[in-house]
Every structure is written in structure tokens, then in C-alpha cells.
Design a protein that fits this description.
- This protein starts with a strand and ends in a 6-residue tail after the last helix.
- It has about 400 residues and is mainly α.
- Helix content is about 70%, strand content about 5%.
- It has 16 helices and five strands.
- The strands form two sheets. The chain has a three-stranded antiparallel beta sheet with strand order 3-4-5, covered by helices on one side.
- Helix 4 packs parallel to helix 16 and helix 6 runs parallel beside helix 8.
């Protein structure tokens, strides 16, 4: 029908009224086309994380500055800012951000390089932070994950989406790998091995989704294995990182030292049983026996206080996020959107597996937060921007898709 939007005629109104109604109808269309399961699951994870962070920090006066609600309020504030960033990302759209990739990439590389200057700060052995002031800090490597995804997607999808090729050629793949390698090498110098591991998984996920030759994927795996051996033999890793791998290989090694975190984590999770000891009533959490419990080891709070049921709920919600992201990647009609979604899937899946796995003793300890759940502004902002990218891909796809 001419002069209609979504089946409603606006031809009987004046120009200003028609413009206003069209904007309202377009806004309503965006809201209806959002992927609500992924959005509600991310919100639920953030709210569960708020309760777990509060439980882990309310009695830690050496951390909360005497205010039991200090970390709770900041976690909720980070979530609110992250949600606003998601809305801004949807409003801009992943296609608009595609044109801004060179600027975003340059900013992210500049920020990670800034960490290596005297402005950088060391937290838990990783020189990966920039102290802003007022108790706030920034971890640039979290945002680098996003720019690697967007940058590689832009290069790999350019000629395919234009209809010039069916798959990225070898030269394009090499350019994309070079783009990812620059910030990864800088992050390795910090050293922030955990973030590098995530970035490697992102690169693998992006290459698989792009349709590039499997030889690149196999070659990258081989280079990664050789690089890991070289890093170990050349002494690139710090002593604390070597000790973490040693404790992973031998859990009985130095249980009061380097193995303390993982031992206490397993005790906390094991004591939760089926339904847990009750929120805010975990003996390990209340007794402050698990270090870094509001960040890297936040899953131990869920295991102890909410038990298998509560921990399983977190896994279920993360599974919903990954499942819906896979649907978004599959249903989009452009390779660029598919690659961006695949990169986010690889990021979330590996980071969640590593974070939970290290608390269970099946993965080595790495300083990686649990997406949406762990305390940390940079991580929270980055994962919500990623949700905004997924929503933009879904919203902007053709209605017939």
C-alpha cells in the first residue's frame, strides 16, 4: 500500500505527522526484530553476577574501602554503561562500524601500546592496565578483541560481499592475519597470555566462518603449537605464568603457594552440592579463602552458594547466548555479518570455557573474566558491545531472511 508502513496507512496525515509516525513505526520494528532470548539471557547473567560479586566482596574490607556495597554498585554501573553501549552499537549499526574500522583499529593499537609506557599498571602479574584515576582503570586488550573481529571481517568479506569472489583469496587471508598479529604481539609483551589465547581462538573462528582454505586453519594451528614451544623454550613467559602451568600439570605441587587458588576453588565448588549452601552463606566465600573471587574465580561463588543448580543455570544462560548467536550467524545474508558473529561466538565460548575450566582444574589458570558475570568494567563494556553487534546483524538483515 502506498504511503504505508507495516501495513498502516499514513497518507491521510500531514508531512510532519507522517514523518513522526514513520520514525515510531521504524523504532517499533527494530524492537520487534531484536533477539530477545540473547538479550534477556545477557541481562540475567549480569544480574546474577551482581549478586555473586556482592557476596564475594561484602566482607572484604581491604578491598571495598569499608563499604559492603562498593563492588555491587560499581558492577551495576558497569552493566548499565555496557547496556547503553549496546544500544549505541545497534543505533550505529555493524555496517556503519565497518566503515570506521581503520579508525577503531588504530585507536585500539594505540591504547595497547600505551600500556607498555609508564602509564601502564600491573595487576596480578599482567602489565595490561591503564589507570585513569578515581579508582577507574582500563584494560585495552578487551576492546582489541572487538577490533580484531571487525577488522578481519572487513578484509575477508569485502570482495565476497561485492560478488567478485566466492571465498577470500590467499592474499586477503594473509592481510587479515597480519592485521590481527600486530595487537596480539603487543598484548603478548605485557604479558597477557590469557587475552592472547582468546584472540587466537577468535582468529580461528573468523577464518572458519569466512570460507578460507582449510590449509590456513591447519597452518595456523601448526604455527600456534610451534610458537607455544618457542615461547616456553625462550623464556618469554614470566615466572608466575610458568608456575601456573606447572600447577595445572601437577595439582599437588605447592598447594599452599601457586596451587592455592585452584585447590580452594575446587573445595568451594565441591562443598556446594546440588543446591548450594545458600546465597551469602558460603563458608569458603565468607571466610575469604578463594582469592580474586569477584573477578577470575566468581564461578566458585555460584558453585558453593547456589550449588549445581545455580552453576548449571549460568551455563544454560551462556548456552542460550551462544545458540542464538549461531542462529544470527547462519541466517544473515552477508559474509561480513556471519564473520562478525562467528568471531563473537569463538570469543565467548572459549573465554567461558577457560574461566570455568580453571576453577574446576581442567584448564590452566589465566586471568580471564567470565562474560557478563565477573566484576570488571572493560570486560563488561566489551561483551555488551558484542551483544550490540549481534543485535545489529539480526535487525538489519532482510525480512525474508
Amino acid at each position: 500500500m502506498a504511503g504505508s508502513t507495516n501495513g498502516f496507512s499514513v497518507s491521510g496525515y500531514g508531512p510532519q505527522q507522517r514523518s513522526t509516525m514513520s520514525r515510531l513505526m521504524a523504532r517499533d520494528s527494530v524492537v520487534r526484530r531484536l533477539d530477545w532470548p540473547i538479550l534477556l539471557s545477557a541481562i540475567a547473567l549480569s544480574l546474577i553476577g551482581s549478586a555473586l560479586v556482592y557476596s564475594a566482596t561484602r566482607n572484604r574490607t581491604e578491598l571495598n574501602q569499608g563499604d559492603p556495597y562498593y563492588f555491587l554498585f560499581r558492577h551495576l554501573l558497569n552493566t548499565g554503561i555496557g547496556f547503553a553501549l549496546m544500544i549505541g552499537t545497534i543505533w550505529l549499526g555493524h555496517r556503519t562500524l565497518r566503515t570506521a574500522v581503520p579508525i577503531l583499529y588504530g585507536i585500539s593499537v594505540f591504547l595497547v601500546l600505551l600500556v607498555l609506557t609508564p602509564l601502564g599498571a600491573t595487576v596480578n602479574g599482567a602489565h595490561a592496565w591503564i589507570i585513569i584515576g578515581g579508582g577507574f582503570s582500563l584494560q585495552p586488550s578487551e576492546f582489541t578483541k572487538i577490533t580484531i573481529i571487525l577488522g578481519m571481517a572487513m578484509l575477508l568479506a569485502a570482495r565476497v560481499d561485492a560478488g567478485d569472489r566466492e571465498h577470500p583469496d590467499h592474499r586477503t587471508v594473509l592481510q587479515a592475519l597480519g592485521l590481527a598479529a600486530v595487537p596480539m604481539m603487543v598484548v603478548m609483551l605485557m604479558p597477557d597470555l590469557g587475552s592472547v589465547m582468546v584472540m587466537v581462538m577468535i582468529v580461528l573462528g573468523v577464518l572458519l566462518a569466512s570460507g578460507a582454505s582449510n590449509r590456513w586453519v591447519l597452518g595456523l594451528i601448526g604455527v600456534g603449537a610451534a610458537g607455544a614451544v618457542a615461547i616456553w623454550q625462550l623464556g618469554v613467559l614470566d615466572d608466575y605464568q610458568i608456575a601456573r602451568f606447572a600447577a595445572f600439570a601437577n595439582p599437588a605441587l605447592d598447594p599452599a603457594g601457586v596451587g592455592y587458588n585452584t585447590n580452594q576453588a575446587r573445595i568451594a565448588i565441591g562443598s556446594g552440592g546440588l543446591t548450594g549452601e545458600g546465597l551469602f552463606h558460603g563458608s569458603q566465600t565468607t571466610g575469604q579463602f578463594v582469592p580474586e573471587q569477584q573477578t577470575d574465580f566468581v564461578f566458585t561463588v555460584a558453585g558453593e552458594e547456589l550449588g549445581f543448580v545455580g552453576a548449571g543455570l549460568i551455563l544454560l544462560l551462556l548456552g542460550i547466548v551462544l545458540w542464538r548467536a549461531c542462529r544470527i550467524a547462519r541466517e544473515t545474508t552477508e559474509l561480513y555479518g556471519t564473520i562478525v558473529a562467528a568471531g563473537i561466538i569463538a570469543w565467548f565460548a572459549f573465554q567461558a570455557f577457560e574461566n570455568i575450566g580453571m576453577t574446576l582444574g581442567i584448564m590452566p589458570v589465566a586471568g580471564l573474566p567470565l562474560p557478563f558475570v565477573s566484576y570488571g568494567g572493560s570486560s563488561m563494556f566489551a561483551v555488551w558491545v558484542a551483544i550490540g553487534l549481534l543485535q545489529s546483524i539480526r535487525v538489519q538483515r532482510p525480512m525474508s531472511a
